[in-house]
């Protein structure tokens, strides 16, 4: 009897230990910091995480979500203090700094360990040859055209070249009615205008601001781009208040029908429809230099993903990255986010989206993604320095060539650090 | 048979010297320290420690971002002081601060005198009191949005000025190097005067009426009464608020950041935006720390005068 009792006790202890072990296994919780959850429909990203947890019962995912700028600050602080979340939502502009800091890990060995097919990834962002970020979803920046304003101004076709764009912008400009052809945000608070609204013109015509990974801003393409933008300003077709204007001001002016054209993210289509359901607009690829026949570079912003170097659960973190990059999940995620996929085999479903996404997908397939700021050191600071020089150019303090030369000198100093 | 045991009372001194226990006198001396310990501990943890850390970072190369950051002495300060944009931001910070403090005082005093005057109908006075205090109720974000809208090239101010034929073109208030700093200062003056107004109004209501009656008997005019009665009575309040306002305004960040971001070019760069960019755009935490220590030192100079003034009272 006593023996039976002891045996039962032992069995209970064993069961308890097994339970505890199972519980401990189930308690592998990874943190995922990103700014995407607030930008997606409520519960959408959590739903994808729930599906992941069902497929991987031993892993739980805690989402750490916030607005873009707050997330960026949190990542900077987390990287500095060694408390960065396991999986990190990344902007291409942050990658170099975080990689140099040793805050994010090289995903190469993790991919090798599971024989991951790297060819399915649209673009792997590397720093010093190490795979630091996958763009999970890309938001391209085409030109938005207010069709009513264009029709009233006698513009019948969407501009495909720089001269057509300048011509259309001039026709659409009527300062007396407070209408302008184009809008350019160059606020120093968020200097993204340099990337999306200025350098994108060079990329669209196959130009580059880098040579062998180093700044090359004095080349004819970049100087020509600055000259072209200056000519638009001289022609008076740019909406006033450039130096204090931010991206949201740009969208606001377009929504209100005050500007005929803007370079903007596809992510804003729904916002524009909500704000002004009567606005009749179309999208087209960014105009290229007259006579240019090559593939057009499409500026884009990404929701990138990477893994923290300090993570205690790199394997589990990789499983989540792999899951989100799989064709099915990636296709589902970008369909919800109205973005383009990071996995080349993903098939986004735009049937429930705005018809313009179908058009944009066509532009996306014909062109190539181009954003040379991705992966650069202190990318935001480079944009800000160039923004200051472009502002000086607009202010009449220097020519386009001088602005390019001054930016080049400032960038070289940053690259040398 | 009972044996009576004589009870011996120990001498007083022996009681006081009981081993293991603190004497009453020692306890009395320690008690005040016990009371201030929680506050001191919190101050050390939340204020002193971060301040020392920032000062330490300012003497290191690659603080925060480098694992092997090394001590470099005052090198970061030398780099900072050699940057012309830094000195431009120092000058602009002082311009922005001095102008803000002076106009805060003038407008706050003017409105306080108006609200204290018996010549205005009490109902109107109550309405004005609510209206005048409104800017104080808004957060910096709201103030920035309001002024961005008002001073937009297509905003209200330009419309009014053009309708009155004062200007014949749309002024880009925040977007022009010529007007941005003044526009920003104007917005800050609008946002900050109610503190003065409320404090000075309370001060005005505390001035004994007998002083004015005596001045009247002496034949003092309204200006003389203001100059020789009102102003001396308000002076302690004015000095206290002005010194505090100077410290606060020198550190203003959200309003500048959300309206101009320090631009156009460097026209509205102030020490707070300059430091922020060093830390969160260039990731130069050591230089940012040096700049922060500089701001701290400037604030300390004013704080010194404030404390001296408080002691003198």
Description:
- The complex is a heterodimer of chains A (417) and B (313).
- Chain A contains 16 helices and 15 strands.
- Chain A is an alpha/beta fold and 417 residues long.
- Mean pLDDT of chain A is 89; it is low at 19-24.
- Chain B is mostly helical.
- In chain B, helix 4 (84-116) runs antiparallel to helix 10 (222-250).
- Chain B has helices spanning 12-16, 24-57, 75-81, 84-116, 122-137, 140-150, 156-163, 180-205, 209-217, 222-250, 254-259, 271-280, 285-312; strands spanning 60-61, 70-71.
- Chain B starts with 11 loop residues before the first helix and ends with a helix.
- The A-B interface holds A 72-73, 76, 80, 97, 100-102, 178, 187-190, 240-245, 258, 378, 380-381, 384, 387-388, 391-392, 395, 414 and B 64-67, 148, 152-154, 170, 172, 174-177, 180, 257-266, 277, 280-283, 285.
Keywords:
heterodimer, A: 417 residues, alpha/beta, 4-stranded mixed sheet, 16 helices, 15 strands, 47% helix, 16% strand, B: 313 residues, mainly alpha, two-stranded antiparallel ribbon, 13 helices, 1% strand, flat, disordered N terminus
Quick rundown:
The complex is a heterodimer of chains A (417) and B (313). Chain A is α/β, with parallel strands linked by helices.
Helix run count of chain B: 13
Mean pLDDT of chain B: 89
Taken as a percent bin, the fraction of beta residues of chain A is: 15-25%
In angstroms, what is the radius of gyration of chain B? 29 Å
What order do the helices and strands come in, and which of them pair?
The complex is a heterodimer of chains A (417) and B (313).
Chain A: H1 2-26, E1 28-34, H2 44-55, E2 59-65, H3 68-81, E3 87-90, H4 92-100, H5 108-113, E4 125-127, E5 130-140, E6 143-146, H6 147-153, H7 162-172, E7 180-182, H8 192-204, E8 210-211, E9 214-215, H9 220-234, H10 247-255, E10 259-263, H11 269-275, E11 281-284, E12 297-298, E13 300-307, H12 314-325, H13 327-337, E14 340-341, H14 355-366, E15 368-369, H15 379-394, H16 400-416
Parallel strand pairs in A: 1-2, 1-3, 7-10, 12-15
Antiparallel strand pairs in A: 3-13, 4-5, 5-13, 5-14, 6-10, 6-11, 8-9
Helix pairs in contact in A: 8-9, 8-15, 9-16, 15-16
Chain B: H1 12-16, H2 24-57, E1 60-61, E2 70-71, H3 75-81, H4 84-116, H5 122-137, H6 140-150, H7 156-163, H8 180-205, H9 209-217, H10 222-250, H11 254-259, H12 271-280, H13 285-312
Antiparallel strand pairs in B: 1-2
Helix pairs in contact in B: 2-13, 3-13, 4-5, 4-8, 4-10, 5-8, 8-10, 10-13, 12-13
